[in-house]
Amino acid sequence: MTMVSVEISEDLYQYIQKHAVPLEDSVDSVLKRLLGLDKAKVAALAAEAPAQPSGTTEHGALQPLVTAGLLNEGDELRWHRAKKGVTFDAKVGPNGTIELDDGQLFESPSGAAVAVAGGNHPGWDVWSHLRSGMTLSQLRSMLNSANDQPTDLSDDWKSQLKMVLSRLPHGAWTSYGDLGRLLGRNPRELGLHLSTTEITNAHRVLQHNGRISPGFHWVGTDRGDVRVLLRREGVLPQRGSVADPSQRLSLESLRKLLQH
């Protein structure tokens, strides 16, 4: 096999060393295993690896999300493989790790995915956060977007969001994007807040095209099929699942609701 020389950072080299089997692995073999290119070795190591005791694991890849409040230790994670008919459950472990049902701790979502399924899987995309209904990748994108914006420690926007939604007229609806522009927040941040907080008329916040968000779920009291309620409120037509664009409140109309 032809080998080529590449330069890597000191941080990456230390990471590779930490995952190497002493006196056996090379940089090449470790990278193959981490990338899922050596399936037999991946399966063998996953089967033999003992669970790491709580409290001795370094910070895992989820720690920034925990620090930002997007995840909490103990939150349930799930990977449902529909085509294979199997579901894997895990939870956010200590120090931003992922803990499997058998107690094993993993520093990264991909490491946990390899342990339960073998092969090469995009861990950030396959694991979903049950409380928010979002993938870990989506939560990470929210964090990155928030870091690109000026820090705002005020919770005023939450009370303003609650106020404007409570004042929506009969038949009117709005979108995550319009509310984001109104309140100066990232639409995904709004979506996460609405998916974890019981707020009047939160179900009338739709996608920009007038469709119900695929991740929508009731918070608190289950009010049944949201489409039935939206039709009763005049938001959706009696036949169809797309709201009338003319009933979408403009940004100016939303501002007026806040001022009243």
UniProtKB/TrEMBL annotation:
<feature type="domain" description="RAMA">
    <location>
        <begin position="47"/>
        <end position="147"/>
    </location>
</feature>
<dbReference type="InterPro" id="IPR040843">
    <property type="entry name" value="RAMA"/>
</dbReference>
<dbReference type="InterPro" id="IPR036388">
    <property type="entry name" value="WH-like_DNA-bd_sf"/>
</dbReference>
<dbReference type="Pfam" id="PF18755">
    <property type="entry name" value="RAMA"/>
</dbReference>
<dbReference type="GO" id="GO:0003677">
    <property type="term" value="F:DNA binding"/>
</dbReference>
<dbReference type="InterPro" id="IPR036835">
    <property type="entry name" value="SeqA_DNA-bd_C_sf"/>
</dbReference>
<protein>
    <submittedName>
        <fullName>DUF4357 domain-containing protein</fullName>
    </submittedName>
</protein>
<dbReference type="InterPro" id="IPR036217">
    <property type="entry name" value="MethylDNA_cys_MeTrfase_DNAb"/>
</dbReference>
